UniProtKB/TrEMBL annotation, chain A:
Keywords: Cell membrane, Membrane, Sugar transport, Transmembrane, Transmembrane helix, Transport. PROSITE patterns: ABC_TM1. It comes from the Bacteria. It is a multi-pass membrane protein. This is Carbohydrate ABC transporter permease. Gene3D superfamilies: MetI-like. The keyword Transmembrane helix applies. It is found in: Cell membrane. Belongs to the binding-protein-dependent transport system permease family. GO terms for biological process: transmembrane transport.
UniProtKB/TrEMBL annotation, chain B:
This is Sugar ABC transporter permease. It holds the Pfam family BPD_transp_1. It is found in: Cell membrane. Belongs to the binding-protein-dependent transport system permease family. Keywords: Cell membrane, Membrane, Sugar transport, Transmembrane, Transmembrane helix, Transport.
């Protein structure tokens, strides 16, 4: 085990340092391999046929066949339509992330700008409920949605995004550093209404925070399995993870590993592309989010 | 002027309405309902176990049964109790390598003498799995580790057929998903440490391991406990990976069945007991969450006292 402990101290021992550096790079490269190897195999498998015995290191020629099978009618009947699942996931994630950033910003604006009696209380309340896991209310949630006739609809998957405590806190922190109250005052003097001030003057200032949080909320919803599984039952409404689950249940006869792998590739591709373009900002966002910890 | 500020206060309340209305309908009321159900013997019979063949649910009106659900859960040898152990064990299997590797990486990345090149690339790669669908990972790892899969072909051991093998695979997936995130959090913490501390340690002739254990670790303790607590609360909710990996069965022998898998399976079944499980998740999360809050408040308090002194 290498000593991970050379920080800044200690007189420079150049051979020791070089050895240390070599060990660090070896471990890092190893971790890169561990992280990327599954994706590599996935892509290779997506070009292979139905049943795949053993490992294969380079692509096969079944990609076109897999594509055809994946978008065929029988696949849609068995597991839920692939097109629809992509569209459904896109719709839910897009709506949820937009609602989440807008209303979180509005809520944060309320406790940031206005002085009112329950201000501290509201702020504390949201901080505390941030720690309540969604699973803790799952049964009551399901039963209540059932009673309202909202199971197997997208309402319980989209509307709760309006109340997102973590996004609220991010917005609040951002406002503390980037939204001087003088701007709001100036807008008031110019006769701008409160709601209009928020929409026309404040939201443009918050754009960077919106971008970060839209990405995070979108990805969370895109990847979410628990909630859609709890709420949705009809195949036409399935999101991507539900179709994946249906595929996991395929019997040995129907199993088409090549096609399934291709579906996983399509399922993660949008997120991977966005991530590759914006990884710098995303990673910075993660580090920023930890400041409150 | 005074009157004006009063009229502005009204807008504070108005802007809070959407959040609180939605929160009450979709979270708070369901939470109270869950607490209520956990004290009743509310069971919906879906006709047959595992299939839900009939859409017609035979419904029993919930009657109060006190702490019966809880005492059933805490009977030794119950499946429900077992599910807690399963969840915790799988969390530990993933968490220990995660915290160790992340700590090592964070120290390396921030080491000024080591000067790791291409940090942006390494960070981007190790964080990548965190944005990927956990269920996709589970599906993929199933096809890699099951008989005939690529990894099975390399190691020739049917890992997914043994309890510890499959728990290990779940731990491995959780490790891959989360170590990048933890590394970045720990890095942010280490970079927040005042560099003059390291400089003076160097002047005083401290060895590198002394610097690590006596400066780095104590100063990043708050973030370490934050990582521990959020990971544990997240771990309690473990669902996607074992559910996809085992087709909701928690096989082998139900040793991979997590608490949330049971809750999900009983949303229309044994509602009373499932609710009790929800409540236990709530209570445990609340206790460790509050412990973290008090610990960090205590920490801040000490800091302030020091400043005053």
């Amino acid at each position: 085990m290498p000593r991970s402990t050379e920080i800044v101290g200690e007189k420079t021992n150049s051979t020791g340092l070089i050895i240390h550096r070599i060990i660090a790079y070896v471990v890092l490269v190893l971790l890169v391999v561990v992280s990327l190897f599954p994706f590599y195999l996935l892509i290779i498998n997506a070009t292979r046929g139905r049943s795949q015995a053993g490992i294969r290191w380079y692509p096969d020629h079944f990609l076109a066949t897999n594509f055809k099978n994946l978008f065929s009618g029988s696949t849609a009947v068995a597991y839920g339509s692939v097109w629809r699942s992509l569209a459904n996931s896109l719709f839910i994630s897009a709506c949820a992330s937009l609602l989440s950033v807008y209303f979180s910003a509005l809520t944060a604006y309320a406790t940031h700008v206005y002085q009112f009696k329950l201000r501290k209380f509201a702020d504390m309340f949201i901080l505390i409920v941030m720690m309540v896991p969604t699973q803790a209310s799952a049964i009551g949630f399901y039963q209540f949605m059932n009673k309202l006739g909202w199971t197997d609809t997208y309402i319980p998957l989209i509307i709760p995004a309006v109340a997102a405590p973590a996004t609220y806190y991010f917005m609040k922190q951002y406002m503390a550093s980037a939204l001087p109250l003088e701007i709001v005052e100036a807008a008031r003097i110019d006769g701008c209404g409160e709601f209009k001030t928020f929409n026309k003057i404040v939201t443009p200032i918050l754009k960077p925070a919106f971008a970060v949080q839209i990405i995070f909320t979108f990805v969370t919803n895109w990847n979410n399995y628990f909630m859609p599984r709890l709420i949705l039952t009809s195949k036409s409404k399935y999101t991507i993870p539900l179709v994946l689950n249906a595929m996991r249940y395929a019997g040995p006869q129907e199993k088409d590993v090549g096609m399934f792998s291709l579906y996983i590739v399509l399922a993660i591709l949008p997120v991977v592309i966005v991530y590759l373009c914006l990884s710098k900002f995303i990673i910075r966002g993660v580090a920023l989010g930890s400041v409150k910890g | 002027m005074k009157r004006k500020s009063i009229s502005y206060a009204k807008w504070g309340y108005i802007f809070l309405i959407p959040f609180f209305v939605v929160y009450i309908i979709f979270s708070l009321y369901p939470l109270f309902q869950t607490f209520y159900y956990s004290f009743t013997d509310y069971v919906k019979d879906q006709g047959s176990i595992g299939g839900g063949w009939t859409r017609q649910a035979v419904e029993v009106t919930p009657t109060f049964c006190g702490f019966d659900n809880y005492s059933t859960i805490f009977t030794s040898g119950s499946d429900l109790l077992q599910s807690f152990w399963n969840t915790i064990i799988m969390w530990i299997v993933g968490f220990i390598p995660q915290i160790v590797i992340s700590l090592i990486l964070a120290v390396w990345f921030t080491d000024l003498r080591l000067k790791i090149k291409a940090q942006g690339f390494f960070k981007a790669v190790i964080y990548l799995p965190n944005v990927i669908m956990a269920s996709a990972f589970a599906f993929l790892f199933y096809s890699l580790f099951s008989r005939g899969g690529a990894i099975y072909d390399l190691i020739k051991v049917p890992l997914l057929e043994s309890v510890w093998g499959s728990r290990g695979v779940v731990g491995l997936i959780n490790f891959i998903l989360w170590y990048g995130n933890t590394t970045i959090l720990l890095m942010a913490a280490i970079m927040g440490v005042d560099t003059s501390l390291y400089e003076s340690a160097q002047i005083d002739g401290a060895t590198s391991s002394q610097t690590f254990w006596k400066i780095t670790i104590p100063l990043i303790k708050p973030i370490m406990s934050y990582v521990l607590v959020t990971s544990l609360i997240g771990g309690l909710q473990m669902y996607d990976v074992p559910a996809l990996l085992t087709k909701d069965m928690g096989s082998p022998n139900g040793k991979l069945k997590t608490v949330v898998m049971i809750i999900q399976a009983n949303k229309q079944g044994d509602i009373g007991k499932a609710s009790a499980l929800c409540v236990i998740i709530f209570i445990v999360s609340a206790i460790i969450g509050l412990a973290l809050m008090f610990a960090s408040a205590d920490h801040d308090g000490k800091k302030k006292k020091k400043k005053r002194g």
